[in-house]
Specification:
275 residues; TIM Barrel; 11 helices
Length: 275
């Protein structure tokens, strides 16, 4: 059940609000709006994300199987957490499809995050190849979550191809630069009728809050927490920031003046001239 009005959100404590403010993805219901991305993994990071940030979905890079990392990672992840394999390392649609099929066989998860990157320097996604892979995998019953550069036409094509959501980058992967593509993400929020999950580049809880205030459905992050001085503290901060941003979005943020100002207190009547 999604809360829609100010009256429904006021006077509700944070934990109760999070429990009630559910969202849907591919026919599955989630309460947490924080997703742990792939990248820098450790037992401490996963514990912090699950226990302090409350994440219900963790991304896995299938290529970690090759170095024996997958078994250890799976040992860290509670059974209640949804696995989100990605196609990291794919350079075209065919490679992404093969990786996704293998991931479903190994992990048993219907979810897949499509990542196709021919650019090895900036790690920018190939939107056209992603559309092609999305169409193939959606027809095979996958819950397809495409990582993309925020472009309205490409996002519409992904949805038409069967994407369960779209995942625009905020900034290059691992950069922690924040909402560099803010205006383009906001355009997607206003025009696309599937969940928008901001992926890559979010470096601070305040940036996650700002994204949620725009109306995105969830935030994916890894590096921001993995490189923090206090993993648990930063994970908790992200949870609180995401919740604050979500509540602000539902409440409706105050209007912004194009120019000038409006006094918050009377400017007349409090001084009297001496007779």
């Amino acid at each position: 059940m999604e809360l829609k009005t100010v009256n429904e959100t006021q006077a509700i404590d944070t934990e109760k609000f999070v429990a009630q403010d559910t969202w849907e993805l591919g026919g599955h219901t989630f309460t947490s709006r924080f997703i742990l991305g792939s990248g820098k993994y450790s037992l401490d990071l996963i514990k912090a994300a699950v226990e302090a940030a409350g994440t219900e979905m963790v991304t896995l890079a299938l290529r970690r199987v090759n170095d024996g990392g997958m078994a250890n990672i799976l040992d860290y992840i509670p059974k209640s957490v949804t696995l989100l394999p990605n196609t990291s390392g794919a350079r075209n649609a065919d490679e992404a499809v093969r990786i996704a099929r293998l991931a479903r066989t190994l992990c048993g998860s219907p979810f897949v995050k499509i990542e196709i990157m021919r650019d090895s320097r900036y790690l920018l996604p190939d939107n056209q190849a992603t559309i092609e892979a999305t169409e193939i995998l959606a027809k095979e019953g996958f819950v397809v979550m495409p990582y993309m550069f925020p472009d309205l036409t490409a996002a519409r094509d992904m949805v038409n191809a069967g994407a369960a959501c779209v995942m625009p980058l905020a900034a290059p992967i691992g950069s922690n630069k924040g909402l560099v593509t803010k205006d383009w993400i906001e355009l997607l929020v206003n025009e696309i009728n599937v969940p928008i999950i901001v992926d890559a580049g979010i470096g601070k809880p305040s940036e996650a809050c700002a994204a949620m205030e725009m109306g995105v459905s969830a935030i994916m992050a890894n590096t921001a927490i993995a490189t923090a001085g206090d993993l648990v503290g930063m994970a908790a901060a992200f949870k609180e920031a995401i919740t604050a941003g979500r509540r602000a979005y539902l409440a409706g943020t105050g209007r912004v003046l194009a120019k000038g100002g409006v006094a918050s207190s009377p400017l007349t009547g409090y001084l009297r001239e001496e007779a």
